[in-house]
Amino acid sequence: MRLTLPYDLRPDPGLPVPGYWDEHLDLSAPAQPPGGGPGLLAAAEGYWARRGLAADTGRVLAAPGAETLLLALLAAAEGDPVLARPAAAWQAPVARLLGRPVHTVPTAAEGGGVPDPFALLETVRRARADGRDPRLLVLSAVDDPSGTVSAPELLHETCEAAAEAGLLIVSDETYSDTLHRHDTVLLSPAEMLPDHTVVLTDLGATLVPSSVPAALARFPGSDHGTAWRERTAAILAALRAVLSGPVAAATTYVLTEPAEVTDHSAAAVRLHARVAAAAARAITDAGAVCRPPKAGFQLYPELGGPGMRAADLEDRLTAALGRRVLGGHRFGDDPLEPRVRIDTGPLHGATDAERRTAMAAANPLTVPHVAAALAALTAAFEEPAGQSRVGGPAGTGSRGGG
Question: Are 37 and 224 in contact (CB under 8 A)?
């Protein structure tokens, strides 16, 4: 198999590794069983309970990364997966490993990784008429690639459509703890369809260092949910997909969320919010169209212009910024529409020392290396944006502004 995707498809949070993480990497900790040991699962139970999703240890699994966990979840369920379009760039490649058809449904123009409910029903209807068997919907109310959040009304309508179509739901809530404003309303499908929803979260976006693969899944309390969990755990065991003892020890600690962990998380979200907003302004000032971010550390701008494709923009911006930029075609979007994901984490600094300085600053935008990175971002967009102004208005794609 020829690899055609970058190795790391996730946005870079650009955070320093906190001291407490290294302190709790217990090198003498025993190996974990598949799905996680009792201490880790008890900590995960508390993690979900604090988020309004009660769970006991018999409803939770841990695995080394969301990719491995999603693969096991899909393999343990019958039928074809249905994904949002665009969706996180790692989801479709994982789903295709099973050899099943992968169906995609466009998201709403205002953003979020939740499919349009009417398009969802039509996609499922057509697939079944063609002899396919869509059974499971993967969605995310807090979106990668755009950093936007689906409105509760849309999420509710999509959940109703999924129930009508007989679809189970895997809700990727990796970025749900990264909301930039406290007044943003965010709901989980597990609150609407508790017996039909598995919640998935990759902890590398928030509680553990981004280089450490660690993820959790919370299953329904129904008989079906219990059976789904048992099948998923068996697949993890067959793959020997377990957390190492030291990583499990540190993960167990951060999942209890003592004050030093919540303080670090709060400082990280403040940094993400300030820098992402500034980056969106820099990009739009250069002539691109970009929806304002509401969560996470990623943006999804679009540039118009004749002949401009997502791959072209990806190549230009990767060269200009000196780091990989992913085009919209990586997320299932139309390759002819010039959209890219911009990770805002790299703007925080290139070293842990620089990142700590940015996190500690009262106004990170005045930190010299952050200000320089924002200026470089503006400059990187100015040339292709200038070409788009010559060729026509920006943002003339089929879905509007990315």
Answer: no
